[in-house]
Amino acid sequence: MIKVVLFDVGGTLIHAHPSVGGIYAQVAARHGVHAPPEILNERFEQAWGPAKKLGSSIEKRWWRGLVEKVFEPYDVPAGDDFFNDIYDSFREPSSWQIYPDVMETLEQLKEKGVRLAIASNWDERLPPLLDALDLSRHFEKKFISFD
Fold first, then answer.
1. Distance CA 118, CA 80 (A)
2. Distance between CA atoms of 77 and 100, rounded to whole angstroms?
3. I need a labelling partner for 23 at 20 to 30 A (CA). Which of 33, 57, 83, 98 fits?
4. What pLDDT does 55 receive?
5. From CA 75, how far away is CA 64, in angstroms rounded?
């Protein structure tokens, strides 16, 4: 009998909405940078793959490097405002969508007495995001790499 199930968060419980590139494009437009979401999605995937394999810690500095790689071909404003706006956009519940079957699945597992936990390599933005998305209440423990 299954007693405990660990869930990752990104790509398992939630996904960026409309997409990472879509959010990047929305934020970039607020700063006068016009970049197509599809291109930004491609560039994100290209930058994310190698960075993920390096086992880099997911910290704000690490994210800044990834965002800089994605926006290399674009003339983005100097300073911190542009990056901070992108970084903070991913704190917002509106930037994320819970997969359609998640809530029902979590409820069914709890009804069967299965203990639920999160194991994620996310950063400090995750706990408040889980609260805002009403996911926290389903999990007994959260193992998040920034802790």
1. 32
2. 37
3. 57
4. 47
5. 16
How many CB atoms are closer than 10 A to CB 95? 19
Quickly tell me which residue has 């934020």 as its tokens: 27
pTM of structure: 0.87
d(Cα 53, Cα 101) in Å, to the nearest integer?
29
124 vs 59: CA distance, rounded Å: 8
Length of the chain: 147
Q: H/E element holding 27?
A: helix 20-30
User: What's the gap between Cα 84 and its chain centre?
Assistant: 15
Mean pLDDT lowest for which of 27-41, 45-59, 86-100, 102-116? 45-59
The first and second tokens of residue 83, run together, are 């990056």
Nearest Cα to Cα of residue 40 among 18, 23, 17, 16: 23
Contacts of 41 (CB under 8 A, 6+ apart): 19, 20, 21, 22
User: Look-up: residue for tokens 């069967």?
Assistant: 112
Q: Measuring CA to CA, how many Å separate 57 from each of 17, 61, 74, 98?
A: 24, 9, 26, 25
Give alpha helix (H) positions in 31-136.
37-53, 60-70, 81-89, 102-111, 126-132
